[in-house]
Amino acid sequence: MKTFPINILYQKEYTKGGEIMRTTDLSKGTPWKVLVLFALPMILSVTLQQIYNIADSAIAGKMIGDSALAAVSASYPITMIYLSIATGLGVGCGVITSRYFGEGNYSSTKQTITTSLIFTTILSAIMIIFGILITPASLRLINTPDDIFSDSSLYLRFYCGGLLFTYLYNVITSIFQSLGNSKTPLYFLIFSTILNIILDIIFVGPCKMEVLGLALGTFIAQGIAMTLSLLFLLLSIKKALHTEEKEILFNTKILKDILIIAIPSIIQGATISVGNFFIQRKINSYGSDLIAGYGAAYKICYVVVNIYGAYSNAISNYTSQNIGAGKLYRVKEGFKWSLLICVIFSFVMSLIFVLIPDILLMIFMDSDASTTSIEMGRYFIYIVAPFFIFMGLKIPSDGVLKGAKDMRSFMIATFADLIIRIVLSYALSYPFGYKGIFSAWPIGWAVGALISVTMYKVGRWKRLTGLPSLQEKGSLENI
């Protein structure tokens, strides 16, 4: 097997194969600078992905009305279940790709990429059929009100029809990021986000297609972005990861390694989404006004939550590459800096959200929005946003646990958060109404953070790396 020493890959941003692919060796350089510079494009990417849904909701609320905003929002927890599968596959592919790339094993890196793409395509076809068929039943299960059921069903069916685009794009993005290239997928996403907003406005405005226009605009934009990014990736790996060995497109052993990481991530993500599904079911029982207000506040808060998720994935790739390069001490150094970064970010975001909740809600609502909808959204922000700090404490630990393949510890922390949120959202709703549902969020985050940090300190993840304890004693003078 042809392999290459890892040190030939690093030049802050080393270019192999001309200007086709830029890759970064995350096992060298000052840890906090490497992490921040690598994570920023990932954070922008996930924020722009959120803008896809935010654009649909904002245009629905401002150009159509509260009922359209409620229709789009009602199906949101269902779409998150489907998206969790794409995210989990991306995590599995990213961790394994990072590990081989960190070792300098280009042949296995290419096989990991092609195996992931083939498997994702097959799975997407199955999920499209399944998703379209169960759309009415899934919306009934979450008590979608009759007055928005038709529009919600239309929007969700279009979303399911585009799952091939969603799944492949997420996996492709993870592949680029695992190679230390977090900028290329960002460029494609900027293009597709702008295109999506333009198409939404055209289809909803001049074309008068209402919710159908929102669904169609997103479908077309995602399809174009996925196609362009796939073509670029295939060209990139052909030139940048050239080996003399016979090409093997689908490797079942590598697929097994991917699934060992991906399945727990999918279960974790899907379980969280199912939990949100049941919370949404409770929310829906309060009527369209609460759905609209909660949907607006939930989405704007989840921009922050998804930024945490993107940074967690950056830490995972950083951890995986450094373990592959045998540098356990850099993992611990990266964790310390990440903890500081996340705490500062949490404080700033909490302050912004608490000071200007109405301005944030008006991203989705217009001046004609009901007083009840605005009040519901404001309460959610006041109850949840001050406690972003718990997510800030949890994310660095989560990233290291995933990157070191300690999925058991990661899932324990995540499931504890989820279970508490579901149970308390129902239990507290009886004496406190919707305010009780909202209060379950920070309590669940606090418990999850405590468990995740404890799991990091216990150190099972270090034993799973297979590296000797001596590796912890590396000097930072030569990094």
Note down, in words, how this protein is organized.
The chain has 479 residues and is mainly alpha-helical. It has one domain (28-465). It is built from 18 helices and two strands. The protein has helices at residues 31-64, 66-74, 76-103, 106-141, 146-161, 163-178, 184-204, 210-240, 252-284, 288-324, 328-355, 357-361, 371-384, 388-403, 407-427, 429-432, 434-458, 460-464, and strands at 14-16, 21-23. Strands 1-2 form a two-stranded antiparallel ribbon. α10 runs antiparallel to α11. Residues 1-21 and 473-479 have low confidence and may be disordered.
Total domain units: 1
Identify low-pLDDT runs.
1-21, 473-479
How many distinct helices?
A: 18
Mean of pLDDT: 80
Task: Provide keyphrases for this structure.
about 475 residues, mainly alpha, two-stranded antiparallel sheet, 18 helices, 2 strands, globular, disordered N terminus, disordered C terminus
